[in-house]
């Protein structure tokens, strides 16, 4: 495994603490009642860019040399990482070019158009958008800010673990969505170095789970993408993955693939009980708890990752869930 240390998470925190928000761990009475243990929600949708992705993007961009910053940056994204790069770059007055596929939801496309970054829509998947971003890197000398498989990105996301352990030293489980592995890899890196007894739980979509499938077969593989409420959990992990695949392989204790109705259940519960409108990827942990995927033995933190969803789509998900629920009764 390519070496990363928890010390890099501390260094990242010192670099970005003035850019990010130290988000709250909100106690959830409803989820605690369901699970029988205290459950807290780590509310990353309150970051200025709308998701946890700002941590990694800010850490990477702020660590670039002055020469690199002057040339600008580029990235590829399913939406949230692109918004984070745009926000961090704008704060430092750096040019940013964000590449996304044609399948990124319209709400995120519109947000990117307003972000100050130059937007390129290329291909039918994140992998195809990545190829375009790499071409820009070579052609224009831009620095690539990858969405997950880079030490600075992983260390930035790991600051979530630092905050969790500071706010809740008794934590026994941390639950988060699993896609490229930057989020769970960073948190796990910090947790296993400082509180190895904490169980790390990663949740993926049923179809298009590149990281989970790669872990299942023991090597990096490509998988086709499918429509899902949790679009932020789509995308490949890179055939030359150096960091996140071994981090997840070594430090994540449990993994589950979660059906669409469970993701919708999480979205509905967060809206109904906490008045939170979040995207599917942010609600996957709540849904998994409600639908019995998780067996918890003590205080648990569920990372609520972002709010990047069109309000009309959210309304339709909630309405459809209630209709299906009524039909079953």
Describe the protein's architecture and organization.
Helix 8 (151-167) packs across helix 9 (182-194). The chain contains 14 helices and ten strands. Helix 6 (106-113) links the parallel strand 4 and strand 5 (118-121). The protein has a six-stranded mixed beta sheet with strand order 1-2-10-7-8-9, with helices on both faces. It has two domains: 6-52 and 150-328, Rossmann fold, CATH 3.40.50.1100; 53-144, Rossmann fold, CATH 3.40.50. 54% of the residues are buried. It is an alpha/beta fold and 329 residues long. It is 48% helix and 14% strand. The termini are far apart.
Write a concise keyword list for the protein shown above.
2 domains; Rossmann fold; alpha/beta; single chain; about 325 residues; 14 helices; globular; 4-stranded parallel β-sheet
**Structural class of the helices, strands and pairings?**
alpha/beta
Low-confidence stretches: none
Q: Terminal Cα separation, in Å?
A: 51 Å
Estimate the helix proportion, in percent: 40-55%
Mean pLDDT across all residues, rounded? 94
CATH topology of the largest domain: Rossmann fold
> Please, how many helices?
14
Whole-number total of structural domains:
2
CATH architecture of the largest domain: 3-Layer(aba) Sandwich
Shape: globular
Number of strands: 10
Strand content: 5-15%
- What spatial order of strands do you see in the largest sheet? 1-2-10-7-8-9
Q: Describe the biggest sheet?
A: 6 strands, mixed
Oligomeric nature of the chains: single chain
> Which value, in Å, is the CA radius of gyration?
18 Å
């Amino acid at each position: 495994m390519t070496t990363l240390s928890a010390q890099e998470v501390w260094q990242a925190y010192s670099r970005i603490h003035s850019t990010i928000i130290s988000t709250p761990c909100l106690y959830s009475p409803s989820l605690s009642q369901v699970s029988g243990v205290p459950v807290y929600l780590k509310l990353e949708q309150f970051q200025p860019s709308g998701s946890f992705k700002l941590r990694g993007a800010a850490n990477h961009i702020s660590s670039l040399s002055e020469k690199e910053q002057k040339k600008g940056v580029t990235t590829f994204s399913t939406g949230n990482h692109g918004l984070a790069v745009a926000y961090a770059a704008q704060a430092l007055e750096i040019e940013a070019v964000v590449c996304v596929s044609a399948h990124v939801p319209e709400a995120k496309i519109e947000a990117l158009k307003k972000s100050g970054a130059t937007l390129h829509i290329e291909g039918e998947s994140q992998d195809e958008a990545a190829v375009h971003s790499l071409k820009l890197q070579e052609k224009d000398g831009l620095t690539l800010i990858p969405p997950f498989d880079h030490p600075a990105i992983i260390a930035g996301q790991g600051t979530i673990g630092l905050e969790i352990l500071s706010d809740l030293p008794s934590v026994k489980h941390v639950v988060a969505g699993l896609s490229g592995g930057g989020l769970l890899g960073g948190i796990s890196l910090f947790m296993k170095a400082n509180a190895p007894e904490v169980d790390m739980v990663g949740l993926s979509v049923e179809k298009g789970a590149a990281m989970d499938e790669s872990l299942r077969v023991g090597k990096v593989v490509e998988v086709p993408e499918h429509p899902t409420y949790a679009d932020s959990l789509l995308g490949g992990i890179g055939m030359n993955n150096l960091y996140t695949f071994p981090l997840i392989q070594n430090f994540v204790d449990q993994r589950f693939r979660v059906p669409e109705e469970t993701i919708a259940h999480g979205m509905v519960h967060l809206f109904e009980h906490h008045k939170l409108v979040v995207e599917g990827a942010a609600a996957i942990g709540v849904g998994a708890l409600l639908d019995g995927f998780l067996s918890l033995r003590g205080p648990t933190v569920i990372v609520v990752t972002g709010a990047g969803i069109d309000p009309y789509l959210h309304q339709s998900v909630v309405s459809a869930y209630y209709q299906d629920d009524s039909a079953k009764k």
